[in-house]
Amino acid sequence: MSPDCLFCKIVAGTIPANRVYEDELSIGFPDINPQAPTHILIIPKQHIASQAKAVSEDTALFGHLMAAAAEIARNQKLERGYRIVVNTGDEGGQTVNHLHLHLLGGRRMGWPPG
User: Fold this and answer.
1) Can you give the three-state secondary structure of the chain, one letter per residue?
2) Cα separation, 51 vs 103, whole angstroms
3) Residue 54 belongs to a domain with what CATH number?
4) Above 80 in pLDDT, residue 61?
5) At CA 3, angle to CA 15 and CA 93, rounded to 5?
6) Model-level pTM?
7) I want to staple 101 with a disulfide (CB 3.0 to 4.6 A). Which of 13, 28, 42, 57 is the partner?
8) Which of 39, 64, 98, 100 is catalytic?
């Protein structure tokens, strides 16, 4: 846990979030600035600042986050498709320094994405 991290505070329960998913390793909740009809953030309970900080010991956690995203997508009825995005660093659009996946769905996604 990082004491100044917004997402660590959500994990700890000191900042409320509408948890649409939770298990022993991760939490899913709606983004406060949605970019699609369905926009869920999936975060690990463990603090990892970004994708760039991942190490080989994090491999199982990353797989777990992807499986959680698939379960959330099923629960959100995104059968027609969805996108998973991981912003990394300032130039990658990361605004909270805690690893998180964006699950976006409910509309056709364009390409290129950014």
Assistant:
1) CCCCCHHHHHHHCCCCCCCCEECCCEEEEECCCCCCCEEEEEEECCCCCCHHHCCHHHHHHHHHHHHHHHHHHHHCCCCCCEEEECCCCCCCCCCCCCCCEEEEECCCCCCCCC
2) 16
3) 3.30.428.10
4) yes
5) 75
6) 0.94
7) 42
8) 100
| pLDDT tens digits for range 31-50 | 999 999 999 999 999 999 99
- Taking only the tens place, the pLDDT of each residue in 78-93 is 999 999 999 999 999 9
The Cβ of residue 6 has, within 10 Å, a number of other Cβ atoms equal to 14
Provide the number of structural domains found in the chain: 1
The answer to whether position 1 is within a domain reads: no
Amino acid, single-letter form, for residue 92 = G
Kindly tell me if the per-residue pLDDT of 7 is higher than 80. Answer: yes
CA distance 22 to 81: 22
With beta carbons less than 8 A apart as the criterion, state whether 84 and 69 touch: yes
Catalytic residue check, 102:
no
Domain presence at residue 52? yes
Q: How far apart are CA 112 and CA 20, in angstroms?
A: 29
Report yes or no on 66 lying in a domain.
yes
